[in-house]
Specification:
2 copies of one chain form a homodimer. By secondary structure, chain A is an alpha/beta fold. Chain A contains 14 helices and 13 strands. Chain A folds into 2 domains: 237 residues, Alkaline Phosphatase, subunit A; 140 residues, no CATH class.
Chain lengths: 429, 429
């Protein structure tokens, strides 16, 4: 009686019930969707302040079911973007360990990591004359391929091959390639202190091993040379590294921590449309087809139109509300939400059987950072809920919705069920 | 640091906290209780349309705590009746695998399965002249012991002993007894296609093994002979088999998938009162005492009165709302709910310390099938909630209740706690 039973995570048990059909599901993840009351704006949240006539009409007409969602499935936890998305895709990030560095690098055209390689997410940043961080994102410059090239051309560390791949705006991937017969170790603490006014941190080993100490030494030498090489390149005169990832994080084929493939688990054919590399990387890691070429919401919607008949599951990512929230820009975040609402009718004009709207985490502009607040969620198609004529898509309305406060890894079964893609469950034989 | 912790399901951890007392809990499961807005009935659900003055008064006077419940503990999943009940009894059906065939057969007076035996749920059905299914339930005839006897007398398959046990209405249990030194295999796909207008399916092997193929062959031969024998017996001129179950599904005593006994886990003495065999079978499988003899709600209540002092936990099952919902009969389901309300005062007149009302799944008549919607729940005794004078027991009211949207396997601890049958928890030693 006291022997434990094995616990099956969502993609495993859902695969036992999945029943493919031709119905189409669209999951729109509005990055940083949720907000918090702002004292300078009549204590309204960004969603409450935003005029969203198209979304509001959509909820009423489609009798959308609403609720709040904890993307990573734990109240109180502030999700990073990688974990938030994995949770919404059904992969409990407390069970499936996928470091951010791997997600970031997956979106590049580079090969998957090889044995002994270490990668990390890199930000170009702005340092002041004393070497303290002025801006963790170098003013969100539009492109960082110039400073990346400078580093690739000029960094010279004996016995270490380093490659920087610029991805989007201030973002890049740091790659430390393994020399013959030798490997690097990813057990290194971030150099990004996640705040301004202080210098970047030393890369410190998390383990007392010669290999890890050697890796930390190389990374610190890289950072030292980078600051030299970039000294006249403000705003991109510094670098911040986080989420060091090694080859071992890919897991062997029989390792239960290896991610089950999205399409196999849920019996769908899935496409990802995202302008930013991290979100393309997450989609690629779970096995979605990544539609390339979009640079903003408008071109994302064009891609969706182009591919709308080719897939049965679509993940569409909209970045702007998170960026404005991170900047502490209440008005900018409201405007970003309203821009989404303006374009939403183009999405509604396409034929999806189930449309879900949510976020990977809240980014209240009042705190200018991700928060642990549960995020608004609406699902149209399937379960029906009656909305009064005053319905507005925001935290308060969603809180009283049919779905309650749910956990991220429970979302996929809900969407599959709403689209008739799950068999009735009467026990497994 | 990398070894996982084991997960303890409800009956296991609850047993560590259970503290018996003489208080009495009554759990009423109204089959198919939940509904959905019906466009032909002013977009009301069946509960919203039903007049339930006694229930409504009960909620107010007892300050019942209300909420919604996902019986199998997963949003988006449509529960079958077996899985829904197991979930409400605390047995997560995604962990404890109990096939429907075993639940159905447990209610008969037959012995438990022996090694090599295979059983299944059987429906007598109505076939048209081309052999296509007209009615999966043979018009819900009141008794099928005549066609069952015809099959028992006339089916002859060399090397196979088949027994059909009529249970209630169109329902029966199919038993394929093992010959000496030989066993049958349950890895067979249902012959019930779960729809009409098509012929029954072939019994196909789920595994490539001689034993399974032989079993499938015998089942197909049985179905062929049954159609011959019953050809003039319309509406019971066909058979549908589902949920083939073998002896191996009973699990050995040390198998963690074996169900912990209800009485031991929760430290109660439990009685089940149900007119229909499946629900008696579920109760028997978890170890409740099954009170026999009831044929409808009225005689169920009489049994409850008779045994009210003999037990500390009572499970009372009311079938009619599900049957009418499955038939797509909105008015009939409303009437079935109102019949319950009329008899409810007889239940209230007895002395239970905690009374809970819920369902094993929703059966909205608008879709004439089970649905994945969470089901209304009310618990009187224990936690108190204030209700305004307009309170009506329905989906909308329960949605805004104290309990939120909860999971089936969390219900038993809630009921035990409300009855003071759980110790304060301050960590396990």
């Amino acid at each position: 009686m006291n022997r434990p039973l094995s616990y099956e995570p969502t993609p495993v048990w859902a695969s036992r019930l999945s029943a493919p059909n031709s119905k189409k599901i669209l999951l729109i993840i509005i990055d940083g969707l949720g907000g918090a009351p702002h004292p300078d704006h009549q204590n309204m949240t960004e969603l409450q302040a935003a005029k969203l006539p198209n979304l509001d009409r959509f909820l009423r007409e489609k009798q959308a079911a609403t609720g709040l969602i904890c993307p990573v499935g734990r109240l109180g936890i502030t999700p990073g973007s990688g974990a938030g998305h994995l949770g919404l895709f059904g992969y409990d990030p407390f069970l499936y360990h996928v470091p951010r560095g791997r997600l970031e690098s997956a979106a590049t055209e580079e090969e998957e990591m090889v044995e002994g390689e270490v990668r990390a997410r890199m930000n170009f940043c702005t340092l002041d004359q004393e070497g303290k961080i002025l801006d963790r994102r170098a003013g969100r410059i539009s492109d960082c391929s110039r400073p990346a090239k400078l580093l690739n051309d000029q960094v010279k560390i004996s016995g270490a091959e380093i490659k920087i791949v610029a991805t989007k705006e201030h973002r890049a991937v740091f790659m430390l390639k393994p020399p013959i017969n030798q490997g690097w170790s990813p057990e290194i603490i971030d150099t990004d202190p996640q705040t301004t006014g202080v210098p970047p941190l030393e890369a410190r080993p998390l383990k007392r091993s010669v290999g890890v100490q050697k890796t930390a030494h190389v990374i610190n030498e890289f950072v030292r040379q980078a600051v030299q090489i970039l000294k006249d390149e403000a705003p991109t005169n510094g670098v911040l590294l986080r989420s060091f990832t090694g080859w071992t994080h890919l897991f062997l084929p029989d390792d239960p921590r290896r991610l089950p493939k999205f399409n196999t688990a849920y019996a769908v054919k899935s496409a990802a449309i995202a302008a930013y590399p991290l979100y393309q990387g997450i989609a690629k890691v779970v096995g979605m087809d990544v539609m390339k070429g979009a640079t903003n919401l408008k071109s994302e919607i064009a891609l969706l139109q182009q591919h709308q008949w080719d897939y049965t599951f679509f993940f569409l990512h909209y970045k702007d509300p998170d960026s404005r929230g991170e900047d502490g820009d209440f008005v900018g975040k409201v405007a970003a939400l309203e821009r989404f609402d303006e374009m939403f009718p183009e999405i509604c004009a396409m034929q999806f059987d189930v449309v879900a709207l949510t976020g990977d985490h809240a980014t209240p502009s009042v705190i200018a950072a991700h928060s642990s607040d549960p995020v608004p969620l609406a699902i149209a198609g399937g379960m029906k809920q009656t909305h009064d004529p005053e319905t507005h898509f925001d935290e308060t309305h969603c809180r009283s919705g049919w779905l309650g406060v749910m956990n991220g890894p429970d979302l996929m079964p809900l969407l599959l069920g709403a689209a008739g893609k799950l068999k009735k469950f009467d026990g497994f034989a």
